[in-house]
Structure formats: structure tokens, C-alpha cells
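Hi R.,

Here's the chain you asked about this morning:
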Amino acid sequence: MKRSLPTLLDLATIHAAHARIQDKIHRTPIMTSETLNRLTGARLWFKCENFQRAGVFKARGAFNAVFSLTDAQAGRGVVTSSSGNQAAALSLAAKIRGVPAYIAMPKCALKSKVAAVERYGGHIVWVEAKGDIPTSEEYERTAARIQVDTLASAVHRYNDLRTIAGQATCTLEFLEDRPELDLLLAPVGGGGLLAGTAVAAKALKPAIRVFGCEPEMADDAKRSLRAGEIVPQLNPRTIADGLRTSLGDLTFPLIAGHVDDIVDVSEDAIIRAMRLVWLTLKIVVEPSSAVPLAAVLEGRLDVVGKSVGIILSGGNVDLDSLPW
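And the predicted structure, written out as C-alpha cells:
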């Protein structure tokens, strides 16, 4: 069934975001591996956002959001809720602009990600949660309370057009450097990266096919796309901690209108892919980053003979608790 294409975000806005942040972020390298190419029968190209500032693609959206604010808005600071990567990215962007960042963060967050927020000067407020893993509602309640107390500007970790436009700049660079790509794969949690990726990719190269990739144990995006409405993420049990969130009311229509499909992968495949990246590319990525390669390794997509772009979304891992 043909879906209507929403106009929430366009290429001009993405180009404006790139112009705004390009002197504040890294233009990350693209890597390939002949070993992985032979293994998969495809030509794989990896956009290494693990080399991005704060070690994650989210720096793009955070810098765009923070530097889109007026001086008066920025002076009151920014607030977000995050288990780690958005927390660190927004703390860094706020530090560069010289304004405070308030972070609603769960106590279950990786120690390495908590340390990154503290290193960048973010003010952590622990999320009050009934379970080990906070729900989206618990995250948002804490962030809303901080905003009332501080009058800081809210920057949602994915459901914010400034954030999505910033994430989309990754694809501008990717297709400028590798215009021959047939497929483009990105992990999907809340959907900010995938939404921005798909809008930019389809605007630049309409024939390219864009796929979201997520864990089987957190497959709400796949189910949402099938249902035609947001299916909440209720009980995610995946090692990919960055992909445990539900889609937002901004990210979902962009994904539904521009993404070709969403595939899911097993936990074993995520760990295998993460280890293979280490062994072949000689770089460290976090589990969420490994999900698109896991989809290729498990045969969830037809990639033989094709040029495939994979966004390695981040490299923030706790080296004291690797999954192998």
C-alpha cells in the first residue's frame, strides 16, 4: 500500500542544520572490510559515528538543537531525558555554547555513559522508576519537573525536529562520499536517526532503499509499521540499550512515509556483529550500532551484489562488561 509522504522535514532544513553544526562536529570516516564483503557477498560501507564527538551520532542533533536556540532561550539551559548517549551529547553541546544542561538519567545507565555526562558538565537528576528500566513516562515526568524548576528549553532525545534534522546530516555526508549506495541501514529505537536518514536519503536519491534494524526483543518499530500506528515499547529485553524506546509522534510518520521496511535480529546476532566489527574493522561499537550488520549477517535483507551503507551509530561501551 502506498503511503503518503509527510512534509514535517525537508532537505533544505537538513542542509541548514549541516551548515549550522559542521564546524562543531566531526565529519566521520567511512570504512569497509574485504573480509566482511566476502562473507556477505556485498560491498559494505560503514559510516563511523563511533568517531563522532561524544562517541555517538546524537551529537549532531544535540548541537543543532542547542545552537538553534536564541541567546535568551539558551541562557536558561537545556533539559533532556536519556540513558546515556543523548545525555552526553547534549551536555557537550551545552558546554560548547556555555549554558547548563540538565539530564534526567536512570540509575541503571552504564557507568561509562554517566561518566561522560559528568565529564561534559551535565547536571544529572536521577529518574524515579518503579522497575530496573524506567518507562518512557517516567523519563518524561522527570524531565518535565526539571523544566518547570529551571525554565530550561526541552530537547527531546529523538522526537524533536531539530534533533531529527541534525541526525539527518549523517546521511548528507554519507551519500556525498558514497553516492553509489543501493541500500542504507540504520538502527531504530525512538526513530530520530532512522527518520532523518530516510528523509535525507530519499530526497537525495529516490531510488535508494532505506531499512531500519532493531532487536527481536524490542521490535515495536516493526510492529508499528505493520499496524500503521505507534505500538508502544512495553518490555524491551535487549543488550542494545539505545534501542529500548518507543517511536514518537514525529518520528513515526516520517518513518512510515520514507522507510522501505524494518527488520529485526536476534540477540546472538547483535553480539556476533559487534565482535566482528572489532575483529575486522578494528574499532569498538556499542550493541545498538551492531544491529544493522546483524541484519545482514542473519540474512534478513537481500544484499548480494549490492552496495550497502551501514550507520555505526556509536561506540560508547563499558569495557569491563563486554558481552563475550
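The domain at 58-154 is CATH 3.40.50.1100 (Rossmann fold).

Let me know if you need anything else.
M.
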